[in-house]
Amino acid sequence: MTDSPGRPLPKVAWNLVALAVCAHAFAELAAITSYGYFRDELYYLACADHPAAGYVDQPPLSILFLSAWRAVFGDSLVALRIPPLVLGVSIVVLTALLARRLNGGRVAQGLAACAAACAPIWLGMSRYYSMNSFDILFWALAALLLAEILDLDPGRGAMPLWLLLGVVLGLGLENKISVLWLGFGLFAGLVLTPARRWLKTRGPWLAGGIAALLFLPHVLWQVANGWPTLEFMRNATQGKYKAFPLPSFLKEELLHFNLVAAPLWIAGLVWLLASRDGRRFRALGLVWATTFAILIVNGNAKPEYLSPAFAPLLAAGGVAFERLLHRGRSVWPAGVYAGALVLNTALVAPFVLPLLSVPWYLAYAKALGVKPSTSEKKEIGPLPQHYADMFGWPEMAETIASVWRTLPEADRAKTAVYVTNYGEAAAVDFFGKKLGLPPAICPHNNYFLWGARGQRPEIFLVFGGAREGHARVFESVEPGAVFTHPWVMPYESGRTVWVCRGLKIPFDQIWPGEKNFS
User: Fold this and answer.
1) pTM above 0.85, yes or no
2) Closest CA relative to residue 375, chosen from 249, 234, 515
3) How many CB atoms lie within 10 A of CB 385?
4) Which of 371, 134, 132, 378 is nearest to 236 (CA)?
5) 516: left (phi over 0), alpha (psi -120 to 50) or beta
6) Which of 130, 259, 390, 468 lies at a 20 to 30 A Cα distance from 36?
7) Phi, psi (5° rounding) for residue 508?
8) Residue 516, SS3?
9) DSSP states along 329-354
10) pLDDT above 90: residue 375
11) How far apart, in Å, are the Cα atoms of 493 and each of 388, 460, 470, 483, 497?
């Protein structure tokens, strides 16, 4: 595309986009009930029981949506995973529409949609309920709106687009604070490219104001609660996540978006930042470059944090490849490349979607030489953490309940369940409800703010830890049962349920020191 704005756009290649959407949806549906509830899904359900303007580890939008969704459709695995599936296919469509906005024809749109549908990281993030699939959608929608704006001249009816962009950014911030990187990248793109002419208009400033206004309720919640998210981010960065130096970070990005797709998105980045045709849309490339720079400077940021910024690169890559591969009338080169994308994704899909039973998965991973991994500083078991965290929760709740049932009925009314992390607590809340267990008490993240949850316990069923440590706090510490499971994270298995009586120190004095925001 030249610098001439207002040029008629190609038609949307709905047939090719529909193929990509169906492929993405089919893969997600094939795994929709495999394994079990993911750790974070259980925590989201627990947070949905406590609607608020914020939480220690996230803003409220995805939680409030889940609260409304669950009220209508329930909290089965299928009901819980329909929203991320719909968001996932929407991202595929938006990526294709973005390629069209960059003046890409059928080939460009088809390649962009295919690359989006086949991106392993996006397939993985669309497999369970979390704020991440919402986040990718907001980034892609913001990129499409910005591309629409950049293809206009100031004063040519762009104000509604700026206002809508402000709404998207504000809602994005209410979903995940990392949308601040998107905002910073957008500003850098406006300052450092010919798009700076827009800074002389009211549009970008009004967009920023709308975003700030929508984000204000969460900021006020942070102020009222002592800025817990800052403490959470500091602790997670320093103590929870592994460091990713530049080579490791780049390697992960290549894997996240399909090795075969690397030439496509790299070509897209070059097209946006260096080509004459991409000059008008250069700000889109700078959004990715700015976010990349922020994460690299951080040093401990997870590579997956960059994934929402890739839609413009896939779209621009489709445009660049269309001009390279679609010379003349033949579409075979693009078709062969799309086929290679699909084939590669089929090979790696079992590593991001639970398509295989555990024995078959372990055999497949061994055959391909893939070892289990985690981005956290934790010992890993036979399964990667994103799969291990789908196992053991019902069994863990049942183990605790088995000890609960051994207590005299008079003691149960004054007994609480104490666990150490939000996954365990959420499992007790979700699965333990039918087993008669009381709400879990836990010092981790938002559970700490919920405190004792109206309970005044005298007896505690403490999950995990050592007798010696508990004996410093309780007069009596007796083992009740041991939870083991072959597929969970190692630190969750082999844990004893201790029956602890006689607090030596009042609980209200102990609780503040138990806080764990990480």
Assistant:
1) yes
2) 249
3) 18
4) 378
5) beta
6) 259
7) -60, -25
8) strand
9) T--HHHHHHHHHHHHHHHHHGGGTS-
10) no
11) 11, 20, 19, 6, 11
